[in-house]
Amino acid sequence: MKVAIFGLGIFGRNVAKALYEHGHEVIAIDQRKELVQKVQECTTQAVVANCTDRELIENLGLDTIDVAIVSLGTDMSASILLTLYLKEMNVKRIIVKAINEDHQRILEMVGATEVILPEKDMAIKLASSLDTPNVLDYLPLTKDYQVIEIKAPASFISKTLGKLDLRRRYGIQVIAIRKANSEEIHCPILPDYLIEPGDILIILGHTNDIEKVKKIAAV
Questions:
Q1: Which domain does 172 fall in, by range?
Q2: Which of 40, 136, 164, 210 is most buried, with most CB under 10 Å away?
Q3: pTM score of the predicted model
Q4: C-beta separation of 55 from 61 below 8 A
């Protein structure tokens, strides 16, 4: 995958480094020379450039990128302009970090395909983890659907997924299972999979149905 990252603050630098370490081609752009120098060793290409200079951006040859990630701090106008330019350059996937919900709405109007609100997302994850300690992670997909990582409830242990019949009983789907203290993931999951102590279930479902499972996990 070829990714262009605009803005090399803490968020942008860490995303660039993580993607590069996973073998992706990463182009990093920022007008601050000192920040560009910091990422030269962990990117494919690091460029000093004004992210709102349309002609300069077009000359970077970004027509071949798969994803653009825009993280320009608190400069709302710059991120909005750049998002518009990228949309007009036919970049298919444009992910932008917003600073508030008004900013998010404008970004979506001018062409952002995905908008990240880090503080809001982290607040929701923190609240969810405090509300149900067995919930390890939380990802809202839409207003009504989400994915969670949750420790297998005690009532699930030593039972197969077929016997639990979670889709019929709760309307949720186990899309993968991660073993405890391991990166080993089982996917897809067969009905005869036997839930073991420490298993972490990755569940997709409607928010209301997910809440039912979280209550079981809290017991």
A1: 121-217
A2: 210
A3: 0.61
A4: no
